[in-house]
Write a structure and sequence with these properties.
This protein has about 200 residues and is an alpha/beta fold. Strands 1, 2, 3, 4, 5 and 6 form a 6-stranded mixed β-sheet that branches. Strand 4 and strand 5 form a beta hairpin.
C-alpha cells in the first residue's frame, strides 16, 4: 500500500487520492514537537513517588518482629491461637518485617483480643425476633514495643468484621466465621504497622 502511495506521490497524483494512512502522516508529524515539549511535564507528576518500603518514621529502623500469642479477654475459648496465627501469616505475606524469635526481634507486638460482638443484620420476614444473618466484629488492642529499650512505639486498636448466616447451630456458625473476621483484623493491624495507616 505504501509503495503504491509513494509511487502516486512521485507522479503528482492529487492528495485526496492517497490512502488514509498516508494522508494522516503530515498531521501526525505536526503533533510530534508539542508531544516532546509536554513529555517532561507529564512524567514529572511521578517524581514524588518511589518504590519500596513506606514504613512510618517510628518504625524506620525496624526489620524484624516477634508476635507472641495474643491475650484473650473474651469468653470465646482458644480464639487467641487463630488470631495470632492469622496475624503472623499476614506479616509474612506483607513482607515489610520478617518474623523472628523474641531474642532476635527488633519489635514485639503485644495484642489483646478485647471483644467479640455479634449483632443481628437480617431477620425473617414477618418475624423480627428471628434472625437469619449476623454481623460479627472482632476487636483487639495492640502495642508495638521496642525490645531493646522497652519503649512503646505505637499502640491502638484494630478490628475485623464479617457476616454469617444462621443454620441449625449458631455457636458453630459463629466459630466458622471468626477466621474471616480475624483475617480482616490482621490486614488492618499489619497495614498500620507497615504503612502507618
Amino acid at each position: 500500500v505504501y509503495s503504491l502511495d509513494l509511487e502516486l506521490a512521485s507522479r503528482k497524483v492529487p492528495f485526496l487520492m492517497w490512502s488514509p494512512a498516508v494522508r494522516r502522516l503530515p498531521f501526525l508529524l505536526l503533533l510530534l514537537p508539542p508531544t516532546f515539549c509536554l513529555l517532561p511535564f507529564l512524567l514529572s507528576g511521578c517524581a514524588g513517588y518511589h518504590l519500596g518500603e513506606a514504613k512510618p518514621a517510628y518504625m524506620k529502623d525496624v526489620h524484624t518482629i516477634f508476635v507472641p500469642v495474643f491475650r484473650n479477654n473474651t469468653l470465646q475459648p482458644q480464639i487467641e491461637g487463630i488470631v495470632t496465627d492469622t496475624v503472623a501469616r499476614q506479616f509474612q505475606q506483607d513482607g515489610t518485617y520478617a518474623l523472628s524469635s523474641h531474642d532476635n526481634a527488633d519489635v514485639i507486638l503485644n495484642c489483646t483480643i478485647e471483644r467479640i460482638t455479634r449483632t443481628p443484620a437480617r431477620s425473617v420476614t414477618g418475624n423480627v425476633l428471628l434472625t437469619t444473618e449476623f454481623d460479627l466484629s472482632l476487636l483487639a488492642s495492640y502495642q508495638l514495643v521496642d525490645r531493646r529499650t522497652g519503649k512503646v512505639l505505637d499502640s491502638g486498636q484494630a478490628n475485623g468484621t464479617t457476616s454469617f448466616f444462621v443454620g441449625n447451630d449458631i455457636t458453630q456458625d459463629e466459630r466458622q466465621a471468626l477466621p474471616l473476621a480475624a483475617e480482616q483484623l490482621a490486614v488492618r493491624l499489619v497495614s498500620t504497622a507497615a504503612e502507618g495507616f
